[in-house]
Amino acid sequence: MKVAVIGYGTVGSGVVEVLMKNHDTIVCRNSLEELELKTILDIRDFPSDPNADKFTKDFNDILNDSEIGVVVETMGGVHPAYEFTSQLLSKGKSVVTSNKELVAQKGYELLLLAKENNANYMFEASVGGGIPIIRPINNCLSANEIIEIAGILNGTTNYILTRMIESGASLDEALNEAQKKGYAEKDPTADIEGIDAGRKICILADLAFGKHIYPDQVYTCGIRDITLEDVEFVKSFGGVIKLIGSAKKLNDGRICVQVRPSVILDKSQLATTSGVFNAILVRGNALGDAVFYGRGAGKLPTASAVVADVIDCVRNYGRTKMIPWAKNERDFVADNFLLPSRFYVRAYNVNDGSLAELERAIGGIKVLERNNQRSDEFAFVTGEICERDLRQKLGNIESVEIKSLIPVTDY
Ligand code: HSE
């Protein structure tokens, strides 16, 4: 089988490196007749690359090459990756990708197209980088009804929060560091604002709950407003703040899906996931909780997942393995403000009067303290309440200024 790679950036060049370096092991261990990299498409020139003779700038060289059966798309973005992928699948070629943006937007259509053409569309590397998570949900956990998935899905923000928690660095200092170390993009908006994690939780929710969910249906809140004050208060409660992407099934069958900073108790396995690592917890009704942990980004970890998909495509050539999920239904996603949870709240302008009112309105709160606390600052954790009711009650207390409102998780 001959393979092509579209997009020779960090992940694409990592894929080529793994295919070359591990060629013999891959072929032998998987009993393949052959696995040969034939063509690489990129608009840039790489004259001194060891594979310089394999480069093309013309997509048709791949599309019309009947020897190429599997194509790796590591160019990123929706366009023209979508058009390329559609044309390849229509010709019966399988496509493997790490492109979470494309899968989150067009996964339903592309899986269907793959099925219609007895091909495969695989995307293990689109969530959690090198961590096996797509295949475990599809295969190993397929006997379970999945109740909830929750994970640290973005390495950049986890690095920043870890630096804030462990060293008291401010968010901007930690972001600068992440950029210098090459973890964060020059424009880290998609990471910081939770957009990247939103795409990833969509893909996991699609797989776990069987219907396409679009990124614009995910309640998304990034880490921009998290302060060292929050970190300290939450520490006094025995927890840490992490950016969590979660999808939870409600009793009526609908799904709550959100990305937001969340308080994780120290005893949770997610609490000890530090730096650029990712961890994904899957709660099944037979298995209980399982946590998948590892390197969620980076050249070779991501390439490891891509190449595993390539091997799977070769082994299943001419036979569709990935089962398409159903098309989107807007009302499948429920309002997360109705989901009961405990909440951490930090407020300013709290005096004796407003404090009494607050305790009367909400009741059963656990008051938190930190060093050098402002005299009008007040932080607490509520009992179970839905966010809509909590915000309504807090809004009724005059002059109190809510600075942070963060759910406390139970995993
Ligand atoms: N920017 C992403 C992250 C890369 O920081 O996790 C991997 O998807």
Would you kindly provide a brief summary of this structure?
Helices cover 35% and strands 24% of the residues. With 411 residues, it is an alpha/beta fold.
Q: Rg from C-alpha positions?
A: 23 Å
Structural class of the secondary elements? alpha/beta
- Helix amount: 25-40%
| Portion in beta strands | 15-25%
Question: What summary fits the major beta sheet?
Answer: 6 strands, parallel
Shape: elongated
Number of strands: 17
Which spans of ≥5 residues are poorly predicted at pLDDT below 50?
A: none
Strand order of the largest sheet: 3-2-1-4-5-6
The whole-number mean of residue pLDDT values reads 96
The count of helical stretches stands at: 14
Distance between the termini: 44 Å
Which ligands does the model contain, each kind named once? L-homoserine
